[in-house]
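Mods, move this if it's the wrong board.
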Amino acid sequence: MKVRIITDSAADLPTPFRPEVTVLPMAITFGEEQYLDGVDLTHRQFYEKLIEGDVLPATNAGESVVAILLSSKLSGTCQSARIAAEEFPGHVFVVDSENATIGEQILVERALELLDQGLEAAAIAARLEEEKKDIRLVALLDTLEYLKRGGRISPSVALVGGLLSIKPVVAVENGEVVVLGKARGSKNGNNLLVQEIEKTNGVDFARPYRLAYAGLDDGLLQKYIADSASLWAGQAETLPVGTVGGTIGTHVGPGAVAVAFFRRSGSPGGTP
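Not the wrong board. Structure tokens:
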């Protein structure tokens, strides 16, 4: 049976992407105006599309669906998808990525690798449930301003942090954004980001990995790549680079640098 992979726009997939993948837009609100990654669509219309639209009913054409979605602790999309999937037992399998942006993206890429290996939808979903535990997403933020606006830190902390040029390193753990540490200046921030990656015992280059940046240019990302050359030397001729879209970019602001990868087998916190 043909398998279709569904994800949401929070995965920040590059376009064009593979035809087996359908991307559903997520809502972004500015004041009273609401957008879906460039498409004017309300939350209600989004859920109607998810439940009643052309995506899930595609199983009528002989397709099974694996839906890989933004962490349920960051959005209600996953729960809505599970409700919709109840109408298609044995055909629609919902996977809570417990991640966001490129962390979610590499899980989609892993699903496609498993699809290419000939696995059916149920088997793909089961493997993803196990392997998602190996994903690590860490990011260095260039500013505290957007954490302040989102209510994650107080205005006084943001003010002092800005004056001292504090760069926080954050990660997604158990589906939630957490602050791992703070560094003074970009150079120290890059070093802290490298250290956090090294703590996981390194990158499994046999599975998908990706770097990304938020903002209008990749200058800070290129500086990070240069500072962290030891992580990639001899492992990859080129590094896959993408951008952080509006769903997550709203919270981290411009200048953020992110790395997502699967831990090596046997890594701390990973599968043995």
